[in-house]
Amino acid sequence: MGCVQSFRELCDRQKNTNVRLSLPAVCIVWQTAMIILFGVFIRYNEESDAHWIEHRKAKNISSDIENDFYFRYPSFQDVHVMIFVGFGFLMTFLKRYSFGAVGFNFLIAAFGLQWALLMQGWFHSLDYTDGKIKIGIENLINADFCVAGCLIAYGAVLGKVSPVQLLVLTLFGITLFAVEEYIILNLIHARDAGGSMVIHTFGGYYGLAISWMLYRPNLDQSSRLQGSVYHSDVFAMIGTLFLWMFWPSFNSAITDHGDGQHRAAINTYLALASTVLTTMAVSSLFQKHGKLDMVHIQNSTLAGGVAVGTAAEFMLMPYGSLIVGFCCGIVSTLGYIYLTPFMEKHLKIQDTCGIHNLHAMPGVIGGIVGAITAAAATESVYGPEGLINTFDFVGDFKDMVPTQQGGHQAAGICVAICFGVGGGIIVGCILRLPIWGDPADDNCFDDEPYWELPDDEEMSV
Amino acid sequence: MGCVQSFRELCDRQKNTNVRLSLPAVCIVWQTAMIILFGVFIRYNEESDAHWIEHRKAKNISSDIENDFYFRYPSFQDVHVMIFVGFGFLMTFLKRYSFGAVGFNFLIAAFGLQWALLMQGWFHSLDYTDGKIKIGIENLINADFCVAGCLIAYGAVLGKVSPVQLLVLTLFGITLFAVEEYIILNLIHARDAGGSMVIHTFGGYYGLAISWMLYRPNLDQSSRLQGSVYHSDVFAMIGTLFLWMFWPSFNSAITDHGDGQHRAAINTYLALASTVLTTMAVSSLFQKHGKLDMVHIQNSTLAGGVAVGTAAEFMLMPYGSLIVGFCCGIVSTLGYIYLTPFMEKHLKIQDTCGIHNLHAMPGVIGGIVGAITAAAATESVYGPEGLINTFDFVGDFKDMVPTQQGGHQAAGICVAICFGVGGGIIVGCILRLPIWGDPADDNCFDDEPYWELPDDEEMSV
Amino acid sequence: MGCVQSFRELCDRQKNTNVRLSLPAVCIVWQTAMIILFGVFIRYNEESDAHWIEHRKAKNISSDIENDFYFRYPSFQDVHVMIFVGFGFLMTFLKRYSFGAVGFNFLIAAFGLQWALLMQGWFHSLDYTDGKIKIGIENLINADFCVAGCLIAYGAVLGKVSPVQLLVLTLFGITLFAVEEYIILNLIHARDAGGSMVIHTFGGYYGLAISWMLYRPNLDQSSRLQGSVYHSDVFAMIGTLFLWMFWPSFNSAITDHGDGQHRAAINTYLALASTVLTTMAVSSLFQKHGKLDMVHIQNSTLAGGVAVGTAAEFMLMPYGSLIVGFCCGIVSTLGYIYLTPFMEKHLKIQDTCGIHNLHAMPGVIGGIVGAITAAAATESVYGPEGLINTFDFVGDFKDMVPTQQGGHQAAGICVAICFGVGGGIIVGCILRLPIWGDPADDNCFDDEPYWELPDDEEMSV
């Protein structure tokens, strides 16, 4: 670590946060590349193309309401709100980093979803007859999901990186995500409707590994800005609540039509309700005078939604959902109380938003819950057709049995962690190059380097 | 009242707001009980169970889109937003009680909806073949509705109670609600799609009766905290607008498929639009210099949605909806100007959010409008099948006629008021026990007793 | 202009902002008129009437899910959020005009939508058999659209007019809108699903012309209030994000069932993503030190949604959407940097929110994109039935060809501009009468004249 240390000092000496050339250059070049790649590769699929009317008649589909748009669009819009308002406002809790929280979240989400459409399209929606990716509403949802992984990672480095670094983080994050997702869902044939493994475990460890690589030993120089103020905590609750309310849509957005979406929504609704109670309990119990801590309410109340992601479409049973939520509220809140300080002090991982407690740990728990629930599936609970349907035991996998599926699910967790940690270390190395315009230690958690601020600012801190 | 007075003084002497033991204990015990009861009683219904695919074929249902999920999920999500963001942010108007408003609203809603699923399930969704409650999307909506009654009651005692008291209020509130709802909808056979009676009248009087029982003669000791600040009023408008916008979904969420949902949404949309204009008019007219008062805009603009709740699914006609909204905007705003101060001074009812003007009065008006509209229904307006459909004149009630239905509706109002007032008095007695950790008079409307506050707080008040 | 000048000075001399008589009078009289007109003219249509069940059987419609409600209600609710939260909060950026932004937006939207239902109903939904307007969910969406035009115009005069002036602006705006829309859509047979021409071009120029007529040479007297503060910029981002996220619903809300709605959502999603990147790029490039300007992020990121409005339902292709968004992000941001100051200085147009950059210019671009895309349509791309379907080549227009359609689209742009500019000048004249209670120059951008403000206000400015 000696050479790492000296390399780090070298980088720190000269901090120039002017992104006047790099940010526009990356945005314009990238957007131009997207236009070209979309021109070459992306077309409407048969449900969004004007030929739909002929397709409908040919396939004998009785009504326009059978178009996948009507099955998934309400869920898509809810997911969209989670990505932009949910993640964006959740990170506004810092007293002086609200512009960066909402604004950079906006930037990297808009940037990432285009690349996600391409990357995921190549793996999942490529029409081999003409070499085009055919997109519809499900692709938009998946692109939003893909972006979520990077926004989770942003939570770990919030306030410590430049927008250009975030674009690099997103570019590689989306790429890794698409590969990891393909391996887990298609090659390993694990199921992961709500993305406990694919999104949260990957995104969490990706962010933590990057934060570890970008460790700042003198971050206490900006400690005056690391807290919240009263109004910024209320803004953050907007993010929390929209995430919490729409999580049932997140976990059910791409599950099977009919009972699949229905069940996933119910399970998530219940798990989240349960989490709120145990989060409040632990928050009060471990604080002197029994006072509640807004950090816990803002974050740990969401852990149940993460942890029920994989199993939401399974026959987890309503009480099963409550149990998952119960445990995650406790684990996540204890994580904020004990683990986050421990990780910062002893593991040199500075995790601004505590994504380890909100995404990484609950994600792994969700993967395990999914593996157990899958392994325990029986034909009597699911019905013969229901079992095939739910676990997609068709094609190459038509001879699989639930216990096998449980093993595959477990393998999925490992892949997600490996991609997260490995990818994060590599990307973290790249982000340490002294060319990205990141802020100095005493300039962290401050909107000032990257935003024109209104005049009131000096007064309010 | 002499003994009541001395009992009250006894309670007030020693105020300990430390909920470090009681809050976690109630949460954990309750959540554990929920897990056990859900394990014993709650299962998926046929539309959310993995057997759906077989059920669908057996029942000859042509498509997954016929699953009730697709009829109701968008409305459910809107209702969900109303419960958590709508009610939560509406109460953030106080300058220093935003954490309590949003946070405790979150807590009791998550707590209440689980109990509501059980209570309502026993009355409405019990499958007698196996003794299980079978839940689907409609149960989730009803659970949210049930919770709304308690959140309304919270509005009356906002800032004056501890979180443990709120949990007790909710526990009993949900129980009373489920019984009252069963009596009104099933025994009396009144219709109440948007819950003017069942939710708003009950919730309003329940909260007012509790507030009356918890009367604090020296509440002016915390009068410095009873007002709003500029930003807290803007936060409250987030709540107002989400309630206002999604109220058509609230009133149409559980009405009949097809024209029922369609008509309920239209009627609510129109009633609310009309209310905004008369609220603004009265607010300006009764204020010196004609200035508008944010309290009225935040609250009275919603009264039309409450008052059209019962009749929204009937053939109220678009102009009928406008008339209802017109009257309620005036009544509700005048209530804020004259009734709330009167009630505080002469009736010893301290109603923090003015729920009497927003929920109780408009709820009763809504019940009356519903009774009149039902009594005036004719076959020529509804069509023979439409009449049976709308008023559910089937089974035991197949010989009912509209005038009878009008009487039943009127009976429903009385039941709601009785349950609200009676239940509130009993629960108010319980809440006066000196064991719940409620704040002292000079500590009301302050987040400080129950929340870890960021450092800025001293400055901003 | 000499006489205009002296007339203006006459008006300015005596400013009385007391609207205690005028505002209530207008609201009550107007609402009463609405009730009467609704009573005479407006009824439920066959999908929202209780006769639906009989209609359904007669028409052999297999399921309630075929009711238009289920095709459009989720989009309607998204549009509703855009109108009330989106437009309302977008305008809260001023440090001391948040009540006016959200509150007056609320007032005029609720006021306008009723008049819009009548005006648009007479043109589009009149049932000639009984002389009644029959309304359903599509009418509610169109009423919201119609209101959007006036809210855009409000953006130009934000902070400089009284609520009574806004009601007048809205009354005439809705009337002009309905006529203009009828000419463009029915007589000219242009297509304009997302309203680039009908809503944004019209609304933009309408507002700019009014602002020009109400030019205030001494507006710098209130320059201390023209900026934002930190928290007001965060509030404005709530508006921005809800507009941005739900714009796909806006552009797809009234397009054809099936592929039409599906494609419009995809195109809008892509155009908006692209706009974010180029907006950020230009904002950083043209600011010293490369810092981002919140004004651009709040507004220009939305330009792509405006510009793709007309063509969203066409086969614009995913890369086409990206190109439109790419250009609009640049044009709109440059507009804020160069055009807005130029217009204020040299053209005497004071455009508070910069609606020229967000609505007028992108609207015209959208009209042009629509014309080109329509003219370039071919049967091979759309399919024979798809072409007829998309461009509605039926009835009187069954012999039209795409190139003709392109010409009609171009004619539509001209009509929208003419109605906007012409109508704005006339309405501007009316609004200059010294009877409307508008604020003095040093009282602009201040909530104080029209709102009861909490005590903290003096401190926070």
UniProtKB/TrEMBL annotation, chains A, B, C:
Its main location: membrane. Residues 67-433 form the Ammonium transporter AmtB-like domain. GO terms for cellular component: plasma membrane. Pfam families: Ammonium_transp (PF00909). It is a multi-pass membrane protein. InterPro entries: Ammonium/urea_transptr, NH4_transpt_AmtB-like_dom, RhesusRHD. The chain crosses the membrane at residues 21-42, 97-118, 139-158, 164-185, 197-215, 235-254, 266-286, 319-339, 410-433. It is found in: Cell membrane. Coiled coil: none annotated. This is Rh family C glycoprotein. It comes from Lates calcarifer. The gene is RHCG.
